[in-house]
Amino acid sequence: MVAAVSFQNVSRHFGAVRAVDDISLTIAEGEFFAMLGPSGSGKTTCLRLIAGFDQPTSGHIEIFGETAEGVPPYRRNVNTVFQDYALFPHMRVLDNVAYGLRVKGVDKVERHRQAREALGLVKLGGMEMRRPAELSGGQRQRVALARALVNRPKVLLLDEPLGALDLKLREQMQVELKALQQQLGITFVFVTHDQGEALSMADRVAIFNEGKLVQVGAPRQIYENPHTRFVADFVGSSNLLDPEFSARYCGRRGWTSLRPENIRLGPRGIHTADGRRLDGRNPEGMITSVLYQGPVTRISVDVDGTTINVALPTSDVSVKAGEIVTLSWAPRALQKLEEA
Amino acid sequence: MSDATVAAATVERTAGGPLRRLSDYFYTHPRVFLGILLGPPLVWLGLIYIGSLFALLAQSFFHLDDFSGLIVYEPTLATYAELLAPANLDIIVRTVTMAALVTVAAAIIAFPIAYFAARYARGRWKAFFYLGVMLPLWSSYLVRVYAWKLILAKEGILTWLFAELHLGWLLDAILALPVIGGPSLSISYIGTFLVFLYIWLPFMILPVQASLERVPASLVEASADLGARPRQTFWAVILPLALPGIVAGSIFTFSLTLGDYIIPQIVGTSRLFIGQAVYAQQGTAGNIPLAAAFTVVPIVIMGIYLTIARKLGAFDAL
């Protein structure tokens, strides 16, 4: 099967800045692919390279097997939902959505019919005659989505589309976007700096840092087997245990990642949650803070000067700051990290 | 510490000197402050500015007695009828045509400059742009017009340049054109047109640049993304969004050309423009009513122009 998008050793340099540095990746047809990374990590530049707004300094890009370099955006069957939505302020909603069909020469009746259909798809029927300025943020986002989808793109690019929405709306749109993608079967490439969004929606997640692709994989794989300290720390939160700590308490070499929710606390002297004894290996430490966060409570424990974060279901928490506790975890919760 | 002393420390009721009490008063009564701020400019605008304009316009409803040369202070439309006499109508048509051509040419020349400044110029280039556009406005208007007279004169640099390029025949051919030609560029409508265009161009560039500055780059990208070729993007997105700026600029270039009386006097033929007619009528001819009637013409034309622009949706994007 031909890949929807493939990057072969693609770089994009702006002077001395390596915005995208030697990236190779393949996005399968029909996949919901998330590009996740902090700002300035190169994920948006990658999206712009696929859309055609920017050209790679070196390397090769293919979209459905066809070379993309030198092809302007208006000759690519790829559409974008912009971060600021980029709706045309002087056009009504219907004309915004019909714009792509209009420039392709589709007659008025037909393009309005398809635009109404696309607006129905994003649940915006009845808003056709409004201007973008008269819509709420969530509605504008839907118009931007309809405007892209009406062209039946082979790849839909979404640049932080939910960033400007409030939390409730964002969660609702996550569900809707995922459902829409499954319904239409279009390849979605989704750029975000919100790891929760990437993990919950994507089939596969690519983690970017400083212009490089750090790790690609299914959300669960990324979360449970982070390869580097950066991934372990950026996706979710994690205790990054230095080589000394790892050797002493985990019996591992090098850096180790340990998720806060995989740690259990017990009274001093009793060494494991499930009753096994680990021969004095289990660390003891003093609780320095207890933060209530609704369903979970975050507890910081100071172990030999290293702060270990623990997340426990609030119903299980009976400790207070200042108490000395024993920490325990299952060996499989430990994840060895490649990079020092 | 008791509650009372805490309250006294947080809400300091007794203010210091009268100045501080005054600013407290203005802060809590913003409308009074606004009134004081707006009062003087409103008096200026209402009485001195608009008032004197209306006093002038009122003059247009009187008329000059041909025999005595005195103004008859009785309401009449006779002066407006005089305006429609062939000689005066000629002046109006000539001026409006010139103003329209200058405006169109200014818009065409200004757009690419403004587009470059708004979209691409950064830092040093932006400063260079502003300096380049504004610098001519800081030097005397008369000096610049006279400089153009020298450039356009028969012995001037343009004639010399055409001759050097062996294009003297082209210049002669242009000057041989009926109506717009003449004995030399400085004594032709082409010359008047060029100088008008030069002098008013900054007034077109700046508003167009300001309007383009407000068009987000993502709109242009979105248009391309949706399949529009650059030309389609220009007509469907960039131009409609720049239109308020172009209209604002054209108000300047159009009305300034309609009213100017110095440029056509220095560069061009001896045929009059509205500004010159007003100058002659209120001065040497002493016919204030006709001068006033002439000044009504640009106001009416601008009114019509703005109404049409509004109907065409030029202000929809505002």
Q: What does it look like?
A:
- The relative contact order of chain A is 0.12.
- Chain A has helices at residues 43-51, 93-103, 108-121, 137-149, 167-184, 195-201, 219-224, 229-234, 243-250, and strands spanning 5-14, 17-27, 32-36, 58-63, 66-67, 78-81, 155-159, 187-192, 204-209, 212-217, 239-241, 256-258, 264-267, 284-293, 296-303, 306-313, 324-328, 334-336.
- The radius of gyration of chain A is 24 Å and the shape is elongated.
- By secondary structure, chain A is α+β, with helices and mostly antiparallel strands.
- In chain A, helix 2 packs across helix 3 (108-121) and helix 2 runs parallel beside helix 4 (137-149).
- Helix content of chain A is 27%, strand content 31%.
- A six-stranded mixed sheet of chain A has the order 6-7-8-3-9-10, with helices on both faces. In chain A, strands 13-17-14-15-16 form a five-stranded antiparallel sheet, with no helix packed on it.
- The model of chain A has no long low-confidence stretch (mean pLDDT 89).
- Chain B is an all-alpha fold and 318 residues long.
- Helices cover 73% and strands 1% of the residues of chain B.
- Chain B has 15 helices and two strands.
- Chain B has helices at 3-10, 18-28, 30-59, 78-83, 86-119, 124-138, 141-152, 157-164, 168-175, 189-213, 217-225, 230-259, 263-266, 274-282, 288-311, and strands at 63-64, 71-72.
- Chain B has a two-stranded antiparallel ribbon.
- The longest helix of chain B has 34 residues, at 86-119.
- The radius of gyration of chain B is 27 Å and the shape is globular.
- The relative contact order of chain B is 0.11.
- The model of chain B has no long low-confidence stretch (mean pLDDT 85).
- Classes of the chains: A alpha+beta (340), B mainly alpha (318).
Supply database-style keywords.
heterodimer, A: 340 residues, alpha+beta, 6-stranded mixed beta sheet, 9 helices, B: 318 residues, mainly alpha, 15 helices
